[in-house]
Design goal:
about 0% strand
């Protein structure tokens, strides 16, 4: 899936079929559904889910908890704006 297809799906009621949990969580986060996004990454032990989990805790304003999840993901704590971080994570995950 490419970024254009992923982004076009925001008019739908659910994430695109078959996307991995971290991308589904970012989809829900973009739609303002933090709890749905958080539940998805809580149920996934991957490093990708941990990275999204870190992002979600930044959105929430819990930088201490975000730091824990960045370490679990093997990612540096970012200073990017939230929208820029969302885009960077999506681009990285779609490229895998």
């Amino acid at each position: 899936m490419d970024l254009a297809t992923y982004s076009a799906s925001f008019t739908s009621d659910a994430p695109p079929s078959g996307v991995p949990a971290p991308l589904a969580a970012l989809w829900w986060a973009k739609k303002g559904e933090w709890d749905k996004a958080h539940r998805l990454v809580m149920a996934d032990d991957s490093r990708e889910a941990a990275w999204v989990h870190a992002y979600l805790h930044r959105v929430e304003g819990d930088t201490g908890n975000a730091g824990y999840w960045y370490r679990r993901a093997g990612q540096p704590v970012t200073k990017l704006a939230l929208d820029a971080e969302w885009s960077a994570i999506v681009a990285d995950l779609l490229a895998r």
